Amino acid sequence: MVPRSMAAPTGVSVSEIFREIDEELRRENLLRLWSRYWRHIIGVVVVALVIAGGIVAWRQHEVSTREAQSARFAGALTIAAQGKAADAAQAFATVAQQGGGYGILAAFEQADQLAKSGDRTGAVKLYDQLAERSDLDPELRDEARLFAVMNGFTDADPKTVIEQLAPLTAEGNPWRATALELSAVARLKSGDRKAARDLYKKLADDPATPRSARALAAEMVAALAS
After folding, report:
1. What is the C-alpha separation between 165 and 186, in angstroms, rounded?
2. Which of 45, 69, 221, 226 has the smallest count of CB within 10 Å of its CB?
3. What CA–CA distance (Å, rounded) separates 159 from 199?
């Protein structure tokens, strides 16, 4: 039985009294900690606010940069659509220098516009650079290699062309059909009709080859056989 001196006031439970005492003790502890460490606490809060503000500013800057880059890329596409290949190449070069996703697309577009403007040497050089970039997806590197060969094919040594295209002729490569066709033309250019016919036959017999390419390959097989 609880002594009268410790008895809870009427209508108030013992658990409520202990809860109030606990809250008072917590408040006193918090006040004691605040009086001792308030400078440190304020410092931590300020640093946290600065970091949060920096993150928000950085994100806003990233969004703003992407929007600006997108606008420049769209502007370069407009120039290209007007048939101003040299000017478009320069506009795409500006976007490409900024890097990022648009930078890669712009580099490919720049090389394409260089070729259209008549600067095939510059186009081949840029495609070669893209083909050597380790940060690009393998398929994009292969695409760059293929375009480099296509743009430099006329003046290139057939043996060099065949060597450059060899990795692209592997089964499963998305550029295999085109690479085999170019390799066959390079064989013809070097005078090796038999090797060219074998490549055309491989194309004609491959169900993965596009229908139009298979038909052309079959015609070449027949022509070279005669």
Report:
1. 10
2. 226
3. 15
